[in-house]
Amino acid sequence: MTRSGSSNPANSEAAAALARHREIIRRTPVDHGYAYDIDGLLRDRLGYMVTHCNRVLDVGQSTRGHAALFAAESLESVDINHGDPEPDIIDDICAPSRLKASHYDGIVCLSVLEHVYDPFAAIAQIHRLLAPDGYLLLHLPFLYRYHAPSDLKFADCYRFSRDGIAWMLRDFSEVRLYSVRGPYSSIFNLHRSWKKTIERRFGMAASRWLDRVGLKLFRRPTSELQVSGYYAWARK
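-> structure tokens emitted (236 positions)
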């Protein structure tokens, strides 16, 4: 046997799996153009769904203030919990029993999958629920604070890097990621007061300014993938 173990079939299979993961990552572009303009990103992507999708599923009622963009008959909400407003369907997105396969041509799932017990199963179900050529708008946090309530009405279980999201969405035909914030503002955003106080008062311009100052001050290469989270736009 060679030192690299190349004669071992298991090693060949592992190498093939690693190569596939690299291929999936490389085919998934990251767009930093909306890093400080998330409202603009949501207007663009949700606006596209409004004009191109007849049936949209809102997972976890994550469209929130943007639900009014949709005609009432075109938007259906699902949640595992009762709430205010009450979701149209009470079901588990990780293992739904009431949602129909290929029934939706748009699904919105923003800041939900970090809270579910099996996000990979949830994505597999979302893929199943979408009709061919259907669209998914997804948001997942990466560098972000713990944010489950003390009563654990929902938990806070997972964080997702570019590489993990690319693999999670591997069965979609097209995927594009949009970063949120930059390397230094993401660090400050780990503190609740940054978003709730500073960004609420000054908008995302505060994060843009902080990243520019940080890059000038430290003068060291910093990964452009050190961000607070990602939006994903994917087509089945």
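Strands lie at 30-31, 56-59, 75-79, 89-90, 104-110, 130-141, 174-180, 229-235.
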